[in-house]
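Re: your question about Beta-glucosidase

S., sorry for the slow reply, the queue was backed up all week. Below is exactly what I fed in.
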Amino acid sequence: SEETAGKGDITFPKGFVWGTATASYQIEGAVSEDGRGPSIWDTFSRTPGKVVGGHTGDVACDHYHRYRDDVAVMADLGMQAYRFSIAWPRIQPDGSGPVNPRGLDFYERLVDELHGHGITPIVTLYHWDLPQALEDRGGWTSRETAERFAEYAAIVHGRLGDRVETWTTLNEPWCSSFLGYGAGIHAPGRTEPGAAFAAVHHLLLGHGLATAELRAAGAKQVGITLNLAPISGNDPLAVAHIDGLQNRIFLDPVLRKEYPADVVERARRFTDWSFVRDGDLDLIGAPIDLLGVNYYSPTTVELRAGQPANPVHPGSEGIAFVQGEEERTAMGWSVVPSALTDLLVRLSRDYPGTPLIITENGAAFDDVLVDGRVADERRIAFLDGHFRAAHAAIEAGADLRGYLVWSLMDNFEWAEGYGKRFGLVHVDYASQNRVPKDSALWYREVVRRNGIQS
Ligand code: GBH
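Result:
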């Protein structure tokens, strides 16, 4: 009650949704089971030198076989929602044509298990595991991939549409395009800036075409998840440059039906944008019900003569990326909770009218399992700070509907392999034992109270 509320207490709006998130290739394993075809991440992770330690997702958390246990863990933790992704190569092993019913069966079992425990499923249709057969025909640099993606979306909705209300099309198209086709840090490992811009457009077109399919099929809520970062710095043009490449190149087409003119202009040295056709932006900018925000860390830039381009931001010569004295996670990312407030407030100011949900936020730390316990107080402090920052944004008027922590459990951290642990639940990769960390038990209380009691 008001009387007993302490000074540092915060309570979220009624109906605020709490949960966790994962992605198919990072947790499932079972890469050649039940008719799954190869994805670009199978190929990439098996290419020497691409992933730390030569790790692959072949076994990962073995979630494909242990999903019942994992749902039980979520239920024990009082989770209300679970965001997971569907592996396209399980549904269409060749990326197009014949459907593999055993792939759909798995996700139907998972969704039913979630409902059986009162947990709301939130489906991501694409979290980076493109069928290799489509990459062989150009991947996201090809318009065809966008069209195939829409067909795949319709197939999945056809099976799960009666039991899944919330759909997001893509996870972080920035990573797929700029890390995958521009910098080569992610699959498919191409290093061509021009290809990265073509991938941006075809990913967004895929989102638009899939959204149309989902709408036609009667999907209740449709959205997209972007990895957004507040950009700051002492030079407004440098800030605008990186903000354009990181944030506006996705936000503006989806929420304003246009590419930002300054980004289009600067990218002309890499592409003539001829892949953008009449009508594409109307599809891409069709209304969405929910914008998923993945937030990890802010970016600070400054002008520095002679600075070579950062390969993840084509054309960024002369701009240096700097970090302050803030605490860093095991990934080396600065911990700045206030930047989350800034980001959410900026989104509601610049792109009003679209409800927001945090589809990922979390951190990797050097966790150790001692006597069956992980005392991850740094993760508790991280989440406490970011939950408070989200609450401050709501108080400032942001329409934030929920918060999904990355991640339910330790998993395959892409190019970093298994060494980086983002989980609320510890995974022993030898035994596949799951142990909720102290942060998971702390989070259970936050969810139970719909807030923090300090
Ligand atoms: C998300 O990516 C993914 O959706 C998820 O699968 C992944 O496991 C999780 O986050 C943790 O990484 O690289 O120094 O310039 C987030 C990817 C994180 C990429 C922040 C850009 C900027 C810091 N982004 N990163 S840096």
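The chain has a mean pLDDT of 98. The pocket of GBH is lined by residues 23, 26, 171-172, 175, 227, 294, 296-297, 333, 360, 406, 413, 422 (CB under 6 Å).

Happy to talk it through on Thursday.
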